[in-house]
Amino acid sequence: MSLNIAVMISGSGSNLQSIIDAIEKNSLKSEIKIVISNTKNAYGLVRAEKHGIKSRYLSKKNYNSPMEYEEELLEILNNKKIDLIVLAGYLGIVPGEIIKHYKNKIINIHPSLIPSFCGKGFYGLTVHEKVLEYGVKVTGATTHFVDEGVDTGPIIMQEPFKIEDEITAEELQKEVLKIEHKILVETLGLIENKKLEINGRRVLIRR
Ligand code: GRF
Predict the structure, then answer these.
(1) How many helices (H) and strands (E) does the chain have?
(2) Confidence of residue 165 (pLDDT cuts 50, 70, 90)
(3) Quick one: DSSP state of residue 61?
(4) Which residues are bridge partners to 199 per DSSP?
(5) pLDDT at residue 47 above 90?
(6) What is residue 1's predicted lDDT score, i.e. its pLDDT?
(7) Which of 14, 21, 148, 172 is the most exposed place for a label (fewest CB within 10 A)?
(8) Does residue 7 register a pLDDT over 90?
(9) Ligand 1, atom 3: nearest CA belongs to which residue?
(10) CA–centroid distance, residue 140 to ligand 1 (Å)
């Protein structure tokens, strides 16, 4: 089933690019109806432009109240008849109203094996620095549904990455990013094909 997708970004948009590439090679049936960035100069906006995808800079700070921002975001999502919101390197907070309205219709990609190295302050390179600092032997990436918490919603997919001793945080970030791109597209494929069954906190995959 083809989904109308909204992708929310804050930065380079390499996860967005992985969705664009998958759609363009017909590995995914969905359509990215809008890319929304909360940072004006996010390279992800350039990526959208290059692929003829509508994009919008939308930041809370440009509105008089959180309510006004929320109404604008909801209106965009309604106008585009969005079925699924994908947070792809999005560093903003999704308003509670939106989370309620799109219950189990918002997914996020996180660069660690949740519940490790996640939550407030765990984003970008910091995640990988903390992983190496702690000395864990395995890290990876996670896709999950978004709920009111930070990185706390039901986990959909995870893939591990074995840490070799001499790896740097930057090298680790690159390796984990490859996994993010892979499992994000796979997650979207499962949702398109209605393969997910949510049972409390457990997300079962009907292969
Ligand atoms: C990456 O660190 C990724 O782990 C996280 O956001 C960061 C930027 O991703 N999800 P992207 O290149 O903007 O998709």
Answers:
(1) 6, 9
(2) confident
(3) G
(4) 202
(5) yes
(6) 83
(7) 148
(8) yes
(9) 89
(10) 13
